[in-house]
UniProtKB/TrEMBL annotation:
Mg(2+) binds at residues 7, 34, 149, 151, 249-250. It comes from the Bacteria. Coiled coil: none annotated. GO terms for biological process: DNA repair. The active site is at 108, 149 (proton donor/acceptor), 250 (proton acceptor). Residues 239-259 are annotated as: Disordered. This is Exodeoxyribonuclease-3. Pfam families: Exo_endo_phos. Residues 4-250 form the Endonuclease/exonuclease/phosphatase domain. The lineage of its organism: Bacteria, Pseudomonadati, Pseudomonadota, Betaproteobacteria, Burkholderiales. It comes from Oryzisolibacter propanilivorax. The record marks 250 as: Interaction with DNA substrate. Keywords: Hydrolase, Magnesium, Manganese, Metal-binding. InterPro entries: AP_endonuc_1, AP_endonuclease_F1_CS, Endo/exonu/phosph_ase_sf, Endo/exonuclease/phosphatase, ExoIII-like.
Amino acid sequence: MQIATWNVNSLSVRLPQVLDWLRTNPVEALGLQELKLVDEKFPHAAFEELGYHAVSFGQKTYNGVAWISRAPLQDVVRNIPGHDDTQARVIAGTLPTAAGPLRLVNGYFVNGQAPGSDKFAYKMAWLEALQAWLREQLAQWRRLALVGDFNIAPEDRDSFDPVGLAGSIHHTDEERAHFRGLLGLGLHDAFRLFEQPDKTFSWWDYRMLGFQKNRGLRIDHILVSDALKDGVQACQVDRAPRKNPQPSDHAPVVATLAG
DNA sequence: ATGACGCTCTTAGAGCGA
């Protein structure tokens, strides 16, 4: 079975592309970020026509996350419990599978703008709260996947310009320490379980022909728990939708799991 | 480089993303 993550940068604008992608990539579950849509406007009918269920957690103008899944998710949680937040950034639920329940956590991690800014401080606090909550989630659900737009390039090889961008947003030691903290909980970057082509990225700036020049970052990730690790069969970035007219600036990331 | 490009809210220009 396959699970995927995709920052669509407005579901209203990208809906036809998401539906097209699901027709050719009929994954079991797809985590979406940056819906920029209130829940009342979530296009449930369009996904139901394709045989999918959806749970959304949106807000006006910014942020917003959703899970699209073949089977309805159970025990759905919106945002990090106990962490006061005005921004809709997390949705989690449990997918029943033949191998047992699969906990699916989808996050639109904070961007953080620049080190030293208020937004960066918010990012650090948010990452702290996420890690504490995930520790609990992992204790409760052995089979867990954390997917989303992490807004962290975990290592130098995940950036088109690690020297020029050293210390800037997505590249700071503080952000990378938080990413390693997640790995320390017993999570594994599915993409790095396999040999991958150099300079594989999941986001490219709209400006300056970023995609054409492959000036990108790998900031969209799928992390899997210890119990899932050995069953991961593949993990890839699907660059194809980034070539669409009027694309999202992010490409989907897909992981193939046993079962 | 206070840039670029795209989306939202609102209807000309600001805020934000990454």
